[in-house]
Each structure stands twice: as C-alpha cells, then as structure tokens.
Amino acid sequence: MMRKLNWRNKYEDYNWIYENDASKDEPGNSRFILGTEGDNPLICFGVNPSTGYHKEPDATLQRLEEYACKHGYDSWIMLNLYPQRATNPNDLHKNFCPMLHYKNIEVISETLERVRKKQSYKNLLLWGAWGKLIYKRDYLSTCLDEIKDKAQGFEWYSHLGNGAHLLSPLPKGSKFYKKELTPLL
How many CA atoms lie within 13 A of 181 on its CB side? Predict the structure, then answer.
C-alpha cells in the first residue's frame, strides 16, 4: 500500500521514480522522469527539466506536488517534451539530439503503459504545461507529436493563460490552484 501524498512531507519518505543520464544521486545533464509512486498520479509534461531531482525538488516540482495534493491525487509524475536540463530555455540544444529524444520517448512510453495497466487509475489524464516555450525550438512540436502518439487513450488538460497558452505549475496564487484543468488537444 502506497503512502498518501502529503504536501511538504519529508522527501526521503517517498517512493521515488527517477531516471536521468547520471548516477541516481546526482542531477545529471538530462532528466527523463521524476515523480512519486502511487495509485492515482497527476502526470505533467513540461518543455524541459530544470534543476530538480529527487533529493532537491525545484519550485516547479514543489508546486506540482502541491497541486496534486490539493486536487486528490496520491502521487505525481513529471515528464518533459525534451529531457535536456536547462534553467534558461535559450540554453536548449540548438539542434535536436536524437539519442536523448529516443530515450525520452522510451521512458514516456513505458511510464504511460504502466499507468494504463493499473486497474486503479480512474482518469487517464495528462497535464500539458509547456507554455509558450514550445516555440523556443522547432523540434519541440515534433517531440510533442511523438508523445501524443504514445499517449493514445489519455486525455490532455491544462490551465490556459493569456492567449490560450498553457501554464506550467510554476505560477503562484490561490486562483491557480483552485482552477480546474481545461480539456486540450
């Protein structure tokens, strides 16, 4: 039986899901998946990972966890369109790296298949949270197209910001957390 997700819990108490391009104890240059094990996860897709890892979740991951707790999820999983770590989106690879992309697609596919197989998953829901950053590199929309192919049977949702751009979990404010996710794609 999995522990109930409890906002601001001690991170060492979680059953972590974490895969990167380095050892498990380091952040590495790429992150393919980060999350917590549970029976009802909130699965979120961003553009690319920043600094967060299981020993030190960054602000985005902390807010994702908070949103999951406040909306009845017992766990969360963060995936990305492209796995390269970059705190500044301008630092994303100028040219697409196929090896990174294919590994990312493999991890996403395995994760979504594991979710599909669990009987306890009531909602096959994915949160699209890439915002305007999807336009930062031409290859990011191609990455999304491949992910959508792997996500057959899932429903995509998001918070819509100004200009109908998707919002990431980063914005603060009570309105954001009370807002329901909007159907998408």
Answer: 22
Residue 6 lies in a domain: no
The answer to whether position 2 is within a domain reads: no
> Cα–Cα distance between 130 and 145 in angstroms, integer?
13
pLDDT of 10 = 53
Question: Cβ distance 156 to 129 under 8 Å?
Answer: no
Domain that includes residue 123, residue range: 11-184
pTM for this one?
Answer: 0.82
Predicted local distance difference test score (pLDDT) of residue 162: 53
Q: 1 by DSSP, 3-state: which?
A: coil
Instruction: Return d(Cα 127, Cα 131) in angstroms, integer.
Output: 11
45 inside domain: yes
Please, which residues bridge with residue 127 across strands?
44, 157
| Residue listed under structure tokens 């770590």 | 85
Other CB atoms within 10 A of residue 58 CB: 18
Q: How many domains does the chain have?
A: 1
Task: Read off the tokens for 36.
Answer: 């917590």
Integer Cα distance of 69 and 127 in angstroms: 15
- Residue 36: beta bridge partners? 16
How far is the C-alpha of 102 from the C-alpha of 93, rounded, in Å? 15
In which band, very low, low, confident or very high, does the pLDDT at 65 lie, cut at 50, 70 and 90?
confident
Is residue 143 in some structural domain? yes
DSSP per-residue letters across 39-50:
SSEEEEEESS--
